[in-house]
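Bump. Still looking for Colanic acid biosynthesis glycosyl transferase WcaI structure tokens.
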Amino acid sequence: MNDVRILIYGINYAPELTGIGKYTGEMAAFFAAAGDDVEVITAPPYYPQWQIKEGYDRGFHTEELEGVTVHRCPLYVPKVVTGLRRILHEFSFVISSMRYWIPRYFRSYDQIICISPPFHLGFPAIIHKWLKGTPVVYHIQDLQVDAARDLGIIKQQGLLRFLERAEAWLLRRVSKVSTISQGMLNRVSRKGIPAAEIVLFPNWVDGDLVFPVARAQSARSKWNIADDDRLILYAGNLGEKQGLENIIELADRMRDVPRLNFLIIGEGGAKARLVAEARERNLPNLSFKPLQPLSELASTLAAADVHLVLQKKAAADLVMPSKLTNILAVGGHALITAEQGTTLYDQVIEHRLGTLVAPEDVDALEVGLREILAGQRADEASGALTFAAQRLNKQNILLDFRQILALNTKQHNSWNSHPS
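Sorry for the wait, here they are.
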């Protein structure tokens, strides 16, 4: 696949440090470095702080970033995220992005890649497919409509049915659907999409940024954490899908454990609530820090004795916790909440990636953590580094996906040269 023209459409993009924007930015830069002509239609960076990054609040503009032409569209970013405000936020981006989409309906591309969520970003791309026959790959990082239903984010049944039908209509009309875990792939399949049209495209680890770091070279010294202190870390998005209030409860229950520190690193819609609750309980063993620089990710993760990977029950197989991939790459011991029967649960057991406990059960979480601290469950995380090396390599994953795009382009060109 040489000199291929690729258009990527997604609301999140580099230089966002976490979540979807990080992966989309790395993917686009990889394609550009391989010789592809890559354009991106996106928003200014705002996640996970839900605040537009300084220097990007200048309306419509285009920049070059790691060989990629990036078109930025202004959008509404709510200070307090609610269901309605999130809908307005996402639709404001779709509307403003038309400034860049309309002229591109008159240009040819070899591939269009849409990143979901928001799920409805596929609709502008479908118009290009109708006009130009361009293959559209719809990449799902988060099953947004399923999450809205199962987590109770949207309770109006009429609206949910409309969204489900709209999503199903869209999935049947794109060229390929890709997603990041086997569980999510199974969910997409149950929506009536043929297996041949679904691609597994997992998130990855950048080995140049995330790797094992000795305890002495970790961030513990920067944070004034003694060698014999125990550090329990949650690092990532502070949203509503993780059940993070259990960390507050856990720290409260474990005041009796000497030299035990809980640290929450990140930003997100739930942060203000979590900080307020921790302050109300007056927890001396719990602290918060903002997102750390990407260059310090390995030393940050290496500082922890135990990593918390928390999800609510209803989020099982809706999202794959991307933070887990980085934990595995530093050889960390993850305490993971997952239900039996989910892909995450089965994968952790099969490859010995960490300690599993039931989600939304603070008693189970406490027992699991106390047993890890007592040295009783060390072997349960013994496969972390091997799995990361064999299954999460950035170069291999992106090369495989680029080959899928190449085949998609070849089929498209073949069909165009032999019209029925």
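Residues 172 and 193 are 7 Å apart (CA to CA).

Edit: fixed formatting.
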